[in-house]
Amino acid sequence: MKEDALAGQLRRGTLEYCVLAILRDGEQYALDVLRQLGAVEGLVTSEGTIYPLLSRLRRDGLVETTWHESPAGPPRRYHRLTPAGRQKLDDFVPQWIRFRDAIDTVIVPKEGT
Amino acid sequence: MKKTTADRLVGQYLRRLRIELRDLPADRRREIVSQFQEHIAENRLENDREEDVRAMLDRLGDPAVLGAEARDRFGVRRRGRGPLELTALVFILLAPVFLVGPAMVLGEGSDGLVAGVVLTFALALTLLWLSRLWLTTDKLTATALVSAGSALFLVLMRLHDGEAAISGLVVLLGLTPFVAAVVHLTVRMRRLGGAPALTV
């Protein structure tokens, strides 16, 4: 279906900024990132997609990982923003708001007309 | 420790995932797979019943879809059967010719035999290992077969030292490992989705 393809494209394109935004306030464990993304309807259809994404963000130097001991079980990998990642997020947010508002003024039906 | 159904499900899932991620650079693939392993292990600490594990793997997603997403993220194209793979197959099939050819030209001294062995391995096996279609286990199997075949061929040639004509049976026997290697690789190529490289 066309709508699905478009939704998929939008999701793929914006998911990386959502992940960057979730890491804005400090380092996070991947499962916690997923929990927060999962709380937003329609954002993540397959949880596994976050792992190639995190890998890509790491390769691009936008995110870095550190290992922490965990109280139970093996050490956990935590992710945090690099300065470059923070910069990319800060650049994107105003662009996104402008873009979103512009689209909204065109496609959202106006009340009372 | 006995393998549970959940272990088998996870093992199967990770195998499929590795196959789907095979077009990514090896270090990326390892990193991604190890994150999946972490995710799975962490979840199984709490819920390890078979239906829990099934549901968790469902939520993670179909390896085929994840592979497509990962290729997209890394800007990598799906690799399929290309000229490299076909040439490798032809060269493995021709390996006996490379093996005995130099000996026939240079005479059956040790120089000819050594040249034959080097030529076989250089041509057939380099192409095989350069391919990113087959998995390492397939390459090892084919390499073992080609090595065994070459050794067998050399032994048979020694046994027939001095005789001008090598009997048909000997040739047939010597060819078997090479044919087996090609058949194995062809079957695996189909299993691994050897669609022509350009269809993505």
Blueprint (SSEs and pairs):
The complex is a heterodimer of chains A (113) and B (200).
Chain A: H1 2-22, E1 28-29, H2 30-38, H3 50-59, E2 63-68, E3 76-81, H4 83-107
Antiparallel strand pairs in A: 1-3, 2-3
Chain B: H1 5-20, H2 26-46, H3 50-60, H4 63-74, H5 83-106, H6 110-130, H7 136-159, H8 168-191
Helix pairs in contact in B: 1-2, 1-3, 1-4, 5-6, 5-7, 5-8, 6-7, 7-8
Q: Stretches of chain B where pLDDT falls below 50 for ≥5 residues?
A: 194-200
Large-scale geometry of chain A: elongated
Backbone structural class of chain B: mainly alpha
Total DSSP helices of chain A: 4
Largest sheet of chain B: none
Mean pLDDT of chain B: 81
Q: How many E strands of chain A?
A: 3
So what's the overall shape of chain B? elongated
Strand runs of chain B, count? 0
Largest interface, C-beta closer than 8 angstroms, per-chain residues: A-B, 21 and 22 residues
Percent of sequence in beta strands of chain B: under 5%
Strand line-up across the major sheet of chain A = 1-3-2
Query: Total number of helical segments of chain B?
Result: 8
Strand content of chain A: 5-15%
Please outline the major beta sheet of chain A: 3 strands, antiparallel
Classify the oligomer.
Answer: heterodimer
Helical content of chain A stands at 55-70%
Indicate the structural class of chain A: alpha+beta
How far is the first residue's CA from the last residue's CA of chain A? 31 Å
N-to-C order of helices and strands of chain B: HHHHHHHH
The Cα radius of gyration of chain A reads 17 Å
